Fold:
Amino acid sequence: MLVGMPRWESDAQGRLERAALELFETQGFERTTVAQIARTAGLTERSFYRYFPDKREVLFAGNELEAHLAAGVEAADPGLTPIEALLNALGTADEVFQSREFLLRRVKVIAASPALAERDLIKLADIAEALVGALDHRGVEPGKARFIIDVAIAVSRRATSRWLADPDATLSDLVAQTAAELREAVAPPTRTAG
Amino acid sequence: MLVGMPRWESDAQGRLERAALELFETQGFERTTVAQIARTAGLTERSFYRYFPDKREVLFAGNELEAHLAAGVEAADPGLTPIEALLNALGTADEVFQSREFLLRRVKVIAASPALAERDLIKLADIAEALVGALDHRGVEPGKARFIIDVAIAVSRRATSRWLADPDATLSDLVAQTAAELREAVAPPTRTAG
DNA sequence: GTCTATAGGGCGATAGAC
DNA sequence: GTCTATCGCCCTATAGAC
Structure:
């Protein structure tokens, strides 16, 4: 036996994640079995469930984004309004994103499966809930915090969608542009005399 | 055989829905089986699936809210801004709600189960998607429409949550109040000289 | 790893209503 | 006869228990 020959191939979780994305792309989520993902990654079905509590989670592992955003809001200048603090943090989300290539593949797979779309939404809701705690430290009451977070996430979704489509723009610029769009949309209309 | 004696008890779907809510309340969603719901409603498990494509859906049947909101937006005064049209419609959502009593039971059951919370979120997303079509008829581009809808839904969620807690306020008043809160939250801060 | 309950789909049988 | 609601039985996959 050669020295340095590992007993198991490394990064079982990563292999499962890559195998799953690949299979979901080619066959669709519903028509892919957990056993198939595991086999493709050189593992057994049982081992899959050691890494992921259910089949959907294989596309949603990791808390980096939530942690990054919460940290960003906690660290924000106390002089900023809550929405400013949130949007600044959301504008740096790309710091924890994978390659745009990978994100686009993932977004497409998720959009193609209602089951994955559900999971995606609750993951976003989990992030929102985590940010309530961060705003709480700034003295924002939870109900109001959740409301402002929902608005900020709406801005972020629009900005991120644009950013995925336009390789040249920066995310934080698009967040700022979308925030301006928000201010305009909620302002009372200028009813010019007709 | 007596005249008027139906072969089956009527309203099988309603019986399933009531049995499910009751069982989810007492046992929780996960610990309730489809067979149990069906038995309680006097049906078999197989028949359950004739009415609902899956176990979660038993709490989410019906499209009344989506239809009501889409119709409200379609019928809105063309002079209103998109967000005004949306918020007006959302302020009348109570017209298609069940009793507050029933809503509170349902909200509690959904909040207690991650699986049901997921389904709840995607139902809201489905409504949002339907409203994109309604705003399209008003000449709003889809990406922008979805953004404004997400913001309006954030307002509506906060207003509805307050309305459920406060039996005396009207939903449309609370929507208006929350819209004012939104305008204040997104306005640049008045930085008084320090 | 093995075992098992449950979800959920396919297909056909049955039995009134018409 | 057709239509429609229900049930029966078979199957696989998920996911949790042991």
In short: The mean pLDDT of chain A is 95. Chain A touches chain B at residues 79, 81-84, 114, 117-119, 121-122, 125, 143-144, 146-148, 150-151, 153-155, 157-158, 161-162, 178-179, 181-183, 185-187, 189, 191 (CB under 8 Å).
